[in-house]
Amino acid sequence: MSFKITWTKEAVLSYSEIINFTIEVNESNTYAQKIIKEIQIALKRLSTYPFTGTKVVENQKIRKSLVLSRYYIFYQIDKTKKIIKVLRIWDNRQNPTKLKSTISQK
Known about the structure:
Elements: E1 4-7, H1 9-26, H2 30-48, E2 54-56, E3 59-67, E4 71-78, E5 83-91, H3 96-104
Parallel strand pairs: 1-5
Antiparallel strand pairs: 2-3, 3-4, 4-5
Helix pairs in contact: 1-2
């Protein structure tokens, strides 16, 4: 049985920022569409195999899954409710200090 995927507000915001930034920088939505597609594929895979993501060292309750070698999906698993909560979509080129403050709060 698959796990249900839910998104936090922060995850939706970070995802939107990545997509909008990509469109702006590339002056096209071609690569943004690729990011969207690959994240959808990764989430579908995680819904079936939620424990494939790597545990985050700073917080063992959080896992991460790499997409397109640049983006991480940070998420938590609720085994009882069979829910994966997406916490943030992260572009690895960003300042890691910003990420640490996010994942240490969860």
